[in-house]
């Protein structure tokens, strides 16, 4: 049996959408991040990648990659 654990944290910032689980949450601040800053989806992705034996989402999609 393989198990993956994922967690993700982002800082609240002004002038950014707040996305959680792919849903936009009305708020005056959003989560800073390289992409959408969706900490929930990113944590789920990390858990799935970990269970599959891969590196976390940060290794798959590094900040240095503009794609």
Q: What's this model, at a glance?
A:
It contains 2 helices and 4 strands, in the order E-E-E-E-H-H. With 67 residues, the chain is of the alpha+beta class.
Keywords:
67 residues; 4 strands; two-stranded antiparallel sheet; single chain; 18% strand
What layout of secondary structure does this protein have?
Layout (H helix, E strand, L loop, with lengths): L11 E3 L3 E3 L2 E3 L3 E3 L7 H13 L5 H4 L7
Antiparallel strand pairs: 1-4, 2-3
Can you describe what's shown?
Helix content is 25%, strand content 18%. The chain is α+β, with helices and mostly antiparallel strands and 67 residues long. The strands form two sheets. The chain has a two-stranded antiparallel ribbon. The longest helix has 13 residues, at 39-51.
Described by the principal axes of the CA atoms, the overall outline is: globular
Main sheet characteristics: 2 strands, antiparallel
Structural class: alpha+beta
Order of helices and strands: EEEEHH
* E-strand count: 4
């Amino acid at each position: 049996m393989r198990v993956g654990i994922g967690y993700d944290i982002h800082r609240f910032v002004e002038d950014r959408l707040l996305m959680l689980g792919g849903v936009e949450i009305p708020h005056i601040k959003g989560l800073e991040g390289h992409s959408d800053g969706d900490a929930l989806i990113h944590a789920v992705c990390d858990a799935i990648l970990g269970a599959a034996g891969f590196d976390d989402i940060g290794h798959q999609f590094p900040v240095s990659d503009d794609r």
